[in-house]
């Protein structure tokens, strides 16, 4: 009988106290490749199911602007209406639909599938949030352009949407995912998503100075408010870019916090 050194045998890395177990089973997937894979999968899945709802969100925002046109003639109020209606598209998809999606995923046991994969929790949350937020881009741009034409607002600074959409989308998508994952039942997740979208509608579209002081304080707690304010300021003849950047910075900070909360909620729901 010949003796073969253990180092040359297949799977010989599983020695020295099991130090090679990780290499034998395969390394855990890294965050960014996992995020890209989840994003592509969610984008493909949602393309057919969510596009009709995106049309609903866009038509809803355009209809609100048309109704407000009979009340608001122009000026600062018109800027608030157009900015709020544009960000409302993001709230409808990122907050409302994502809350429903994660609520149904948790209720149906779909989280068990993700839990068995070597995918970081942050990749699942960020991938789904990014896919849903991506669908808001065309509707938000169309709403902003039509609203600007309807109220006679300048179109020169619409490029600000390139920052408003992802930052507002991150904040609202993180909140929507957290609501869906923390809700004990899918029905409650749907309810929470609807309530959040209604808050974005009432507190975002209506001019702030027309609201009672207590309602204005509640408005400051809504993540989408700072995206609305940043976009509304861009309609000024000479925008105060420091204030615009300040609003976007707050929106970004809220987005990081809400996505972190959604990641924690995902881990909490996945182990139950």
Supply Rg: 23 Å
Q: Would you list the SSEs in sequence order as H and E?
A: HHHHHHHHHHH
Q: Tell me the number of helical segments per DSSP (H or I, 4 or more residues long).
A: 11
Q: How many β strands by DSSP?
A: 0
Main sheet characteristics: none
Q: Helix content range of the residues, please?
A: over 70%
Low-confidence stretches: 1-26
The shape, in one word, is: elongated
pLDDT averaged over residues: 84
Question: What distance separates the N and C termini?
Answer: 53 Å
**Beta-strand content:** under 5%
Broad structural category = mainly alpha
Topology:
Elements: H1 21-25, H2 31-69, H3 75-107, H4 111-115, H5 121-134, H6 136-151, H7 161-182, H8 186-205, H9 213-220, H10 224-233, H11 241-270
Helix pairs in contact: 2-3, 2-5, 2-6, 3-5, 3-6, 3-7, 3-8, 3-10, 5-7, 5-11, 7-8, 7-10, 7-11, 10-11
Describe the protein's architecture and organization.
The protein is mainly alpha-helical and 272 residues long. Helices cover 74% and strands 0% of the residues. It contains eleven helices and no strands. The chain has helices at residues 21-25, 31-69, 75-107, 111-115, 121-134, 136-151, 161-182, 186-205, 213-220, 224-233, 241-270. The protein is elongated.
């Amino acid at each position: 009988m010949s003796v073969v050194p253990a180092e040359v045998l297949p799977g010989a890395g599983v020695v020295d106290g099991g130090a090679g177990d990780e290499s034998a089973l395969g390394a855990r997937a890294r965050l960014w490749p996992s995020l890209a894979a989840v994003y592509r999968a969610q984008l493909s899945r949602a393309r057919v199911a969510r596009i009709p709802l995106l049309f609903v969100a866009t038509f809803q925002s355009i209809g609100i602007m048309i109704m407000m046109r009979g009340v608001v003639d122009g000026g600062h109020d018109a800027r608030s209406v157009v900015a709020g209606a544009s960000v409302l598209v993001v709230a409808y998809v990122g907050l409302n639909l994502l809350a429903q999606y994660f609520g149904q995923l948790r209720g149906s046991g779909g989280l068990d599938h993700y839990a068995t994969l070597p995918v970081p929790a942050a990749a699942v949350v960020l991938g789904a949030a990014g896919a849903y937020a991506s669908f808001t881009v065309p509707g938000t741009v169309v709403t902003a352009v039509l609203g600007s034409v309807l109220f006679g607002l300048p179109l020169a600074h619409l490029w600000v949407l390139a920052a408003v959409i992802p930052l507002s989308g991150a904040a609202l998508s993180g909140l929507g995912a957290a609501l869906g994952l923390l809700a004990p039942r899918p029905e409650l997740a749907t309810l929470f998503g609807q309530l959040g979208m209604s808050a974005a509608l009432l507190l975002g579209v209506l001019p702030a100075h027309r609201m009672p002081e207590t309602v204005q304080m509640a408005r400051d707690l809504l993540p989408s408010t700072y995206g609305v304010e940043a976009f509304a300021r861009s309609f000024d003849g000479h925008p105060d870019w420091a204030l615009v950047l300040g609003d976007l910075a707050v929106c970004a900070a809220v987005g990081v916090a809400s996505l972190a909360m959604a990641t924690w909620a995902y881990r909490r729901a996945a182990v139950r």
